[in-house]
Amino acid sequence: MGDSYMQDQAEALAQHLRLTDGKSGYVEATAEGFRVFVRKKWPGKPVLSWDGLPVEWNENVGTHKASGR
Q1: N- or C-end of the chain: fewer Cβ atoms within 10 A?
Q2: What is the mean pLDDT of residues 14-42?
Q3: How high is the pLDDT of residue 69?
Q4: Is the pTM of this model over 0.90?
Q5: Contact 66, 23 (CB under 8 A)
Q6: CA torsion angle 51 53 54 55 (round to 10)
Q7: Residue 29, strand partner residues
């Protein structure tokens, strides 16, 4: 699995979670899986795996962090 593949999967997960406005959160690909950063508490049940890899959730992060800067 290459880095670009993981990046594509992270973007697909961000699309799935509707984190594409650049403000509410973003998804980061790591060697182990994916990390989701969201500004607020996630409504409903968070996605715990994507493409067979674990998803780590980080809720209530600051605005700066949520925009991926």
Answers
A1: C
A2: 93
A3: 63
A4: no
A5: yes
A6: -40
A7: 34
**Which whole number is the average pLDDT over 17-40?**
93
Per-residue confidence at 1, pLDDT binned at 50, 70, 90?
A: low
* Residue 42 DSSP SS3: coil
Quickly count: other Cβ atoms within 10 Å of residue 51's Cβ: 15
Residue with tokens 């950063």: 37
CA–CA distance from 18 to each of 13, 26, 32, 33 (Å)? 8, 9, 22, 19
DSSP letter for each residue of 13-68: HHHHTT--SSSSEEEEE-SSSEEEEESSPPSSPPP-EETTEEEEEE-S--HHHHTT
Using the structure block, give the residue that is written with the tokens 């994916």: 34
**What mean pLDDT do residues 5-14 have?**
96
Phi, psi of 50 (to 5 degrees): -145, 130
